[in-house]
Amino acid sequence: IETLFLEQPGLKTWKLWRVAAYATALRSVIRKSGARLIHCDTLNSAFLAGLANLFCGIPVVLHARTSCSGGVLDRIVPFFCDRIICVSRAVAARFTGSLYFPDKVLVIYNGVDTVDFAPSLKGDEFRKNHGIPLAVPTIGYCGQLVELKGLGVLVEAFGIIKNSVPECRLVLAGRGDFKAALQTKVRSLNLEDSVV
């Protein structure tokens, strides 16, 4: 599969000529490639792809994963999309408003492999490997370690919980650019012995 990267104009620096140049370049790629679908995973990309696609007539699909507001783009982007696939009803709620197209919004929950992630699995091996006794209450997070996820608030809340339940543990699993800040927060709250 051929891959081509176009430098997308940043939202804060959008100027009409940059948006027009990007849309023109993208329209050229769409036509030359013979694309039959445009898949976007951000509001910016859906907006820009929608502009580029105005005269191409190819379906545009946005895969929306966060419930954080995109401001005015939440109201504009549905005009350009044939379908907006949301990972939850909370995400789908972003697109309700004066320009809402209910037939375009579809909720498809993220899939889970029920063999590897069966409710019957207890996590005993993980607890043993990390020195967490079976009876110790444990809070877990698995996902991107990014500020947007509210992990700083989770660590602060865990500090409060630890005052009432001193033996509890917090497990954070994932990767992301907020990892160093989380480690600093854990140290500043003296929680190093309780956060894995």
Lay out the secondary structure:
Elements: H1 16-33, E1 38-40, H2 43-52, E2 60-64, H3 73-80, E3 83-86, H4 89-92, E4 105-107, H5 124-129, E5 138-142, H6 151-164, E6 169-173, H7 179-188
Parallel strand pairs: 1-2, 2-3, 3-4, 5-6
Helix pairs in contact: 1-2, 2-3, 6-7
Detailed description of the structure:
The protein is α/β, with parallel strands linked by helices. The chain contains 7 helices and 6 strands. It has helices at residues 16-33, 43-52, 73-80, 89-92, 124-129, 151-164, 179-188; strands at residues 38-40, 60-64, 83-86, 105-107, 138-142, 169-173. Strand 5 (138-142), helix 6 and strand 6 (169-173) form a beta-alpha-beta unit. Helix 2 packs across helix 3 (73-80) and helix 6 (151-164) runs parallel beside helix 7. The longest helix has 18 residues, at 16-33.
